[in-house]
Write a structure and sequence with these properties.
single chain; 447 residues; alpha+beta; six-stranded antiparallel sheet; two-stranded antiparallel sheet; 14 helices; 8 strands; 9% strand; globular; EC 2.7.1.158; IP5_2-K_N_lobe; ATP-binding
């Protein structure tokens, strides 16, 4: 009904305003406002955009009955001030979780070694979603180590899947579409971006030029992701020391390359505390129990709701997402006292973590001359040019409470497929190279 749609949209606005803004900061989160549109306009819009929608999204219909919608700012342009129209616009979706589970509830040891994203890639290829697994590993991007971050972003550019899109003046110039091979044309991308990175046209064309421009692009994206333009309350909220979990993934192509070269230890520089990746990781790490430890607590809440269904609104499962809801999330106590209150807190923290694992980041860049770049604007320098930029977080709708059983089932499928079809074929010598700090006894036999 129209009332239900209005309530649902109000929950999304309130969740962004009162909860996610506390985690990410005022400058990064744009919660929007609810407006009502003429139904005739909505129907025309629906027909106009249908041919442009990816095939996998066409099973979802636009609401053409209520007219309620959310109005958000145009995040494809830097938010601080108005600019001329000529600019490269980058939209990057950060793929999934930036840490390895550290929970003692994890039943399969492989989950402590290989990240879920890398494992899930193999299941997606087997199911026909992608033709080959990506070399991208989110732990490399979230490491704060520039060498690893560059490798991660280069891997994303090589195998964009649906995780990276680049727009130039509102037009999509790079990103995998459902009906195309995911091997992307870097030369075409370089042709689009060359005027922005090398405005004097001093570089010759060809492979050298393409590699140079892609390298510049990766450098600029890295610097914007590590920059700090905001403060927020959650910046000081440390869920768990990152060192408690493994800082690298054994399936990472970067990591495997190190091992082949005889290096067994990855340097992890760590993220600056104020940058968006750090704040994203902190929100993700509210998943302290892993889905395996969380699912029994979800079952406890479900059992309580079966006995007392009228308590659902009191427990704020479906909102309102206000300051009181946020305050309850700050209880990081790991001690289970057997209560429904404890179980519910962990369930809600898990939903926040899942939202942070699936969020998108949009980077908007605009070239600027030296005299245009004031201290009030965020500026990033490339070799031959400079850009003002803004970074925004999108897709911050709270993950549904009802999706937890699906996540539990999917987790089992991902891990079981990986163990059966991937790890079994891996060279056992490789896994031995990862063993660290093991005692070794040399036994000499008389010949």
């Amino acid at each position: 009904t129209s009332e239900e749609i209005l309530h649902h949209l109000q929950n999304i606005v309130d969740f962004g305003k009162h909860v996610m803004k506390q985690f990410f900061g005022e400058n990064y989160v744009h919660h929007g406002e609810i407006i009502q549109l003429p139904l005739d306009f909505v129907r025309q819009l629906c027909l106009k955009i249908q041919p442009e929608r990816p095939e996998c999204r066409c099973d979802k219909d636009m609401d053409t009955l209520s007219g309620f919608a959310m109005c958000l700012p145009n995040l494809t342009r830097p938010q601080s001030y108005r600019l001329a129209e000529h600019r490269p616009l980058l939209c990057i979706e950060i793929p999934k979780c930036g840490f390895i589970p550290f929970s003692s509830h994890v039943s399969q040891e492989i989950k402590h070694k290989v990240c879920r994203y890398c494992m899930h890639q193999h299941l997606k290829v087997a199911n026909g979603k992608w033709k080959r697994p990506s070399k991208y590993c989110p732990l490399d991007l979230f490491s704060g180590n520039k060498q690893r971050m560059h490798f991660a972003l280069k891997s994303l550019l090589q195998e964009a899947q649906n995780n990276l899109k680049i727009f130039k003046n509102g037009e999509l110039i790079y990103g995998c579409k459902d009906d195309q091979d995911s091997v992307s044309d870097w030369n075409e991308l370089a042709r689009h971006l060359k005027p922005f990175f090398f405005p004097s046209n001093g570089l010759v064309s060809g492979p050298h030029c393409t590699r140079t421009i892609v390298k510049e692009l990766i450098q600029v994206i890295t610097m914007t992701l590590l920059s700090s333009t905001d403060t927020c309350r959650a910046g000081d909220m440390k869920t768990v020391p990152v060192s408690q979990g493994r800082s690298y993934c054994e399936a990472s192509a970067f990591n495997k390359e190190l091992v082949r070269n005889g290096k067994h230890k990855l340097e992890s520089s760590g993220l600056p505390r104020g940058c968006l990746l750090y704040k994203t990781l902190q929100a993700q790490m509210l998943d302290m129990l892993d889905i395996e430890g969380l699912y029994p607590l979800y079952s406890r809440v479900e059992q309580y709701l079966e006995e007392f269904p009228e308590e659902r609104s009191t427990l704020q499962i479906d909102g309102p997402y206000n300051e009181a809801f946020y305050e309850k999330l700050l209880d990081l106590s790991p001690e289970d006292d057997g209560t429904v209150a404890f179980a519910l807190t962990k369930v809600q923290q898990y939903r926040i973590a899942m939202t942070a694992k699936d969020c998108s980041i949009m980077i908007a860049l605009s070239p600027c001359l030296q005299d245009e770049c004031s201290e009030q604007r965020s500026v990033v320098l490339a070799s031959k040019s400079r850009f003002t930029f803004s970074v925004s977080v999108l897709d911050l709708d709270l993950k549904p409470y009802e999706s937890i059983p699906h996540q539990y089932k999917l987790d089992g499928e991902i891990v079981n497929y990986y163990l059966k079809n991937v790890q079994a074929k891996e060279d056992p010598v490789m896994s031995n190279l990862f063993k660290e700090n093991e005692d070794c006894t040399l036994v000499l036999h008389k010949v």
